[in-house]
Amino acid sequence: MPAFRRAVATLVVLVALVVGIGIAGVPVFVHPQVDPLRPADAIVVLGGTAYERFDLGLRLARQGYAPELVISRSTGIDDHVMDRYCDGTFDFRVSCFVPEPWTTQGEAQEIARRADTGHWRHIIVITYTPHVSRARYIVGKCFRGELTMVASPADSGPLFWAWMYVRQSAGYVRAFLQPGC
To answer: Among 94, 97, 82, which residue's Cα sits nearest to residue 49?
Structure first.
């Protein structure tokens, strides 16, 4: 009987832990802090699939929020869907880059480099919803100016959100362990 009680107690603790982590992650991953839009020096769209974020970047640039749109082409140069963003003709500057390393930190390092050359003091950063908080932390380690974070809608469903909790949490741990930019 003590083995059964120990197993039940362990199960109760594990369920409580999972529920606690789930609840704690809601304001970080599901409803992150986003900022009111206002004009900036540049709009930066962090990479990945779910191309809606790039459309959002174009829309904000067309609305005049910044004279320059910078896109992380983190899906690689062979992703020809990105050609319509990176090779298009627009009334504002558009430039694309492949981050090195191929991570949010690589994107943040490129943002810092471009901010130094372009004398950016304020940027709008677009990424998908569960990535907003971690992106704010990582980009903030490299860019010393003001950040306006904008969430592009993300997929939904329990499997997606379970994976995002794991992926984004692991990314936070990695970011905390990496000093500096």
So the answer is: 82
What is the helix (H) or strand (E) element at residue 133, kind and residue range? Answer: helix 132-142
pLDDT tens for 119-144 read: 999 999 999 888 999 999 999 999 99
User: What value, to the nearest 5°, has the Cα angle with vertex 165 and ends 72 and 22?
Assistant: 145
pTM to 2 decimals? 0.86
Integer Cα distance of 154 and 160 in angstroms: 9
Q: What are phi and psi of 162, to 5 degrees?
A: -65, -45
* 3 state DSSP class of 90: coil
Decide yes or no: CATH 3.90.550.10 for domain 32-177. no
Whether 46 and 126 have beta carbons less than 8 Å apart is answered as: yes
Strand partners, 71: 45, 96
CA dihedral 144, 146, 152, 154 (to 10 degrees): 50
